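Subject: Re: docking follow-up (pyridoxal-5'-phosphate)

Dear J.,

Thanks for your patience while I sorted out the input files. As discussed at Tuesday's group meeting, I've set up the holo structure prediction with pyridoxal-5'-phosphate included as the bound ligand rather than trying to dock it afterwards. The sequence and the ligand SMILES I used are pasted below, so you can double-check that they match what you have on your end before we go further.
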Amino acid sequence: MDIKSFIPPQRILMGPGPSDVSQRVLDALARPTIGHLDPAFVDMMDEMKQLLQYAFKTNNELTFPVSAPGSAGMETCFVNLLEAGDKVIVCQNGVFGGRMKENVERCGATPIMVEDEWGKAIDPDKVEQALKANPDARVLAFVHAETSTGVQSDAKTLTELAHKYDCLVIVDAVTSLGGTPLEVDAWDIDAIYSGTQKCLSAPPGLSPVSFNERAAEVIRNRNSKVQSWFLDLNLVMGYWGAGAKRAYHHTAPINNLYGLHESLLILQQEGLGNAWARHDLHHQALKAGLEAMGLSLLVNEVDRLPQLNAVVIPQGVDEVIVRMRLLQDFNLEIGAGLGSLAGKVWRIGLMGHACSVRNVEYCLQSLDQVLGDMGVIEKGVAVPAAQTILTSAA
Ligand SMILES: *Cc1c(COP(=O)(O)O)cnc(C)c1O
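The structure tokens for the complex came back this morning:
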């Protein structure tokens, strides 16, 4: 066996996540591992909570990163808030709403599905009809930013509706956190989960979550034990909770937490509002470039996510060849379509550290070459169109 150390290639990550990780965050990851009960580490945990509260715009005590990727944050919300026999209204307009349904079923609860077309936002009228028709429902669950389609739904309105009908909300903010306006306290969101590898630009493997007092009360007053020992918040809080004794529950992923701490610090230093504005501006520039070369976006303008652009694949183009050339010749990763959009769209991410002038121009230039060689776009016009947007904003 002649196995050498693994040295990954240098890529530019403009897919649906993971996104580019900055050198500052990579440096933080490489700092010395210390004990997860070390007083210095515990001080870092307190700061982590403050930084997460800032990013979520919440004062919720119960705010911390689950020690596993976004899917584990999703599962944490469902297994802690649901008990067998509960009824849950689940909105689905893409891949991730389908995973919520799976979670509900595996808790022994009953999902009531409210479906919208892939590429469209969740329709609040349909949600209200479902809430009216199911007065015994306890929870409304929906995805704020559907990464599979590039759509954002109106989390504020959906949360208001849920509360009007006495339901709690569970919100998937894996792709929205840090990239697009999200206000946990002002919108009165009860339970929310996110991920680190999308707009926070830290490596995957952690899932920030936050629960308000209403949700915490439900968790404390359960009739049955949470089915997952690892994700049971009543136990995890002995380590992460306010004034907790930092009792051993599981070994925290120490170095990964250094990375998240640094990426949240970068977000706080930039300012949340500035980060949202940066995502919007670079999306406008990318869109101008794509449209100039003759490509179009899947989602209508009002529902578009700036950080995830679903681009319609032109007729007759073998989309796999395009993505392979981008990766091999340009070290650029963009995403394929998922589920019913496979083969129909590419997904270009502008997330966190990857959302920059340099990346917008590089992506447009690379597409210009690859699609230009195939003769399916107008060459040489994309980058100037993007620059017009960027300079008029400067
Ligand atoms: C990426 C993503 C997830 C899953 O997160 P993982 O970190 O891959 O487990 C869940 N929901 C949405 C909307 C996502 O984009």
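A couple of observations from a first look. The mean pLDDT is 97. The pocket of pyridoxal-5'-phosphate is lined by residues 17, 69-71, 96, 143, 147, 172, 174-175, 195, 204 (CB under 6 Å).

Let me know if you'd like me to rerun anything.

Best regards,
T.
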